[in-house]
Amino acid sequence: MDAMLHISTLHYLVLGAALFLLGVIGVLTRRNVVIVLMSIELILNAVNLNLVAFSRLWGGLHGQVFAIFVITDAAAEAAVGLGILIAFFRNKETINVDEVNLLKW
Amino acid sequence: MFFLSHIWLIPLLPAFGATLMFFFGRKLQKKTVSAVCVGVIVLAFLMACGAVWQYSDYAHANPEKHGYETTVYTWLGSDTGQLTYTTQAGTSAEFRADAGFLLDPLSSIWLLFVTGVGMLIHIYSTGYMAHEGGYYRFFGYLNLFMFSMLTLILANNYVLMFVGWEGVGLCSYLLIGFYFHRKSASNAANKAFIVNRIGDAGFLLGMFFIAWIFGSLQFTEVTKLARDGAGHFSADTLTYITAATLLLFVGACGKSAQLPLYVWLPDAMEGPTPVSALIHAATMVTAGVYMVARSNALFWLAPKSMTVVAIVGALTAIFAASIGLVQNDIKRVLAYSTVSQLGYMFLALGVGAFAAGVFHVFTHAFFKALLFLGAGSVIHAMSGEQDMRNMGDLAGKIPVTYRTMFIATLAIAGIPGLAGFFSKDEILWKAFQKSPALWAIGFVTALMTALYMFRLVYLTFWSPSRVASHDIEHHIHESPKSMTGPLVVLAFFSITAGYLGVSPSLGGSNYFEKFLEPVFVNKVEATEAPASSPAPSEEGSRGTEYLLMALSVAAAGAGWYMASRAYGNAGKGFSEPIAAAAPPVYNALLNKYYVDEGYDYLFTGRRKLGGVRLGAMGLGEASSWFDANIVDGAVNAAGWMTRLTATISSWWDKWIIDGVGVNGIAYSMLPLSWLSRLFGLGLVQWYALVMTAGLAGFVFYYVYH
Q: Quick check: is A100 in a domain?
């Protein structure tokens, strides 16, 4: 099977970048707060992918270890985020992020 | 000296009569009114005779005194020292005017003829006014007049004399306007008073000057100061004295109807005839002459004023005589005659012949009063007709009136043997000595006097009858005794009064002039006499005097002759010779030289020239137009300008300051701040986008740098 496409580090990076971009676009564009949180997770996971790819490239385990930290951090952050979401919903009865504009001038 | 010490009773008696009439006159019967009012004048006359009689004794006993003087009370002035003022010389003087009386030769002459002629006229009026309404009012005014005139004559200072002066002016107004229902009468009364007032202004100013120069207003004081200081006065003082005397003469012009201010006298004939006789012939109009004679010491110090007096007198004489030649109203002729004769008196005063002037006043009072009363009698007989063109052939029908008037005419014309001859000739002789030109004017006037007086006699008495209606002609009758009695008395005096002043050239000793000598001492000439040229020789001057006398008699005769030629046979529709010879001259004379119309244009402003008033009143109207339109217009314009600027200011404030400045800045904030507003959008995703954009920017910067 040498005629097969060799999956190199570049592919991992491109995928990671694409996932990152999708996540950023989701954060910036989506109206639903839950989707925004999911997009934030996507961004974090894209970063994980980047880290692991570079760990495979350089042969050390630093990238993978950092990825574990990021996953933990993402879990905590998701919990907090959902807590904010619940509080937000209790106040506004809506999960439309456009409605968070009390600080509008 | 009872009459002398009680001399204040003389003016007070008629004042009492006037007061009684004022309060009770309406309720009294005519005969009571007559008894009271005529009675007081008779009493006053008797007292006057007594006073003058006693004065001659007094004067003999006190030769150093210049007349008998008594003060009844202090009228103006006090001893508080508050009324001091500084005189022209720099000394301090106290203002004082007493109710004081002075009886000296001058005032005694006036006193006698005023009370005497006044008494006769009062008696006459009881007959003349017997059928008129307002009887008590007439006599009340007449008595008030006598009171004022006597105050004027007997006053010892200028201020009290001025009181009398104004009083006679007031009574003149009241009496001229006696028939006040007639517009012409009330207009004439107004005219008299107003023109008089103009003269009074001059009198007052003259008085102020005298008080300022001499520090006193008493006659004796002023005369003494003037005579003592003659020759020592500075040129400035003499100028002021000239001014004072000229102003006094203006007052005399007003009262005695001289040239610019004579216009009231002819119109004053609107009053009843006794009024014309008393006031405008014998007494009031002589007040000016009295005042100038009283101030003779001042006039001697001001030769220029005397020249003015003489010239004005002469011009007035000839001017009025010329107008009198053609008048048709019998009283108008006599009025202009009065103005003319007054001119003679002032001519005499002006050339320095004070005694001659006073003598003419004296004789004139008799024959002029007689002429007026006689004219009144004629009018009474003609049932009110006054136009001589409708008279004629009255000699036989009213004999007493005719004879007395004829005597008066002879007197005024200057026919020898009667009063007027002696007095008028004195004046003409003295005028000739000063200036032949003045004599010439007087001579022509004498001719005209004779002419118009005989014209009057011819037209009224001697010419064929031109009486208009048969009723009047049948009604012609002689007047009652109350009217003819005074005529006879006056005629007697018109003949005899002249003999008091027969001049030395005719063999007399001129008692009149001697009597008046203390009053008219001429200190100025006495001090200057040694330096002047020697007087002309006695022989030469006597010859000239006789020549002039003959000329005046010739003039009188010529006047008589001319009148007889022109009017002797004046039948109905007769023509005036002057009208036939020179119609423009006749028109000018008949219309009194259009002087009244001239005054209308110049002063009274009753005539307009194309809608614009002329003269003094026109100036007033122009000034008031100027004030109302231009001055007030400027004020209004200023106000309008203020409102305009206020409007602009408020518009500026509202639209520019507020609109642009304040609100504009506010409105512009909105667009100007969009950039800053972006920071406060409030949208979380927007914040995230900005963060991402910043991050991307940093990345690109580091990658591509």
A: no
Residue of B682, B688, B689 with shortest CB distance to A102: B682
HEC string for B578-611: HHHHCHHHHHHHHCHHHHHHHHHHHHHCCCEECC
Determine whether the interchain pair A100/B684 forms a contact, defined as Cβ–Cβ distance below 8 Å.
yes
Identity of the residue numbered B213: I
Residue B530 pLDDT level (bands cut at 50, 70, 90): very low
Query: Which residues of B fall within a CB distance of 8 Å from A29?
Result: 685
Which domain, by its residues, includes A68? 2-95
- Alpha-carbon distance A65 to nearest alpha carbon in chain B (angstroms): 26
Query: Does the pLDDT value for residue B529 go beyond 50?
Result: no
Calculate mean pLDDT across residues B181-191: 91
Cβ separation of B684 and A97 shorter than 8 Å?
yes
Residue B374: how many CB atoms within 10 A of its CB?
Answer: 33
Residue in A97, A102, A104 closest to B685 by CB: A97
Residue A105 lies in a domain: no
Side chain identity, residue B491: A
Q: Do A28 and B689 count as a contact with CB atoms less than 8 A apart?
A: yes
Neighbours of B66 (CB within 10 A): 18
More confident residue, B279 or B117: B117
pLDDT number for residue B534 = 41
Write down the pLDDT at residue B532.
37
> Which residues neighbour B325 within 8 Å (Cβ) at sequence distance 6 or greater?
B448, B451, B452, B455, B578, B589
Is residue A18, in this structure, part of any structural domain at all? yes
In angstroms, the separation between the Cα of residue A89 and the nearest Cα of chain B is: 15
**Structural domain contains residue A63:** yes
Number of domains in chain A: 1
Q: Kindly list the residues of chain B whose beta carbon comes within 8 Å of any beta carbon in chain A.
A: 677, 680-685, 688-689, 692
Q: Is the pLDDT of residue B472 over 90?
A: no
User: Who wins on pLDDT, B534 or A100?
Assistant: A100
Q: Which CATH number is A18's domain given?
A: 1.10.287.3510
The total of other beta-carbon atoms located within 10 Å of residue A25's CB is 13
Give the minimum alpha-carbon distance from A2 to chain B in angstroms, rounded to a whole number. 35
Minimal-distance CA residue of chain A relative to B692: A24
| pLDDT band at residue B407 using 50, 70 and 90 as cut-offs | very high
- What does A6-60 look like in DSSP terms, one character per residue? P--HHHHHHHHHHHHHHHHHHHHH--BHHHHHHHHHHHHHHHHHHHHHHHHHH--
Q: Are B413 and B445 in contact (CB under 8 A)?
A: no
Task: Give the pLDDT of residue A3.
Answer: 63
Closest by Cβ to B682, choosing from A27, A28, A101: A101
Cα B94 to chain centroid, rounded: 30
Q: Is the pLDDT of residue A14 over 90?
A: yes
| B683–A97 CB contact, under 8 Å | yes
Nearest to B682 among A27, A29, A104 (CB): A104
Cα–Cα distance measured from residue B431 to residue B450, given in angstroms and rounded to the nearest whole number: 19
pLDDT in tens, B3-35: 888 888 999 999 999 999 999 888 888 888 889
CB of A2 within 8 Å of a chain B CB? The answer is no
Nearest CA in chain B to A98: B683
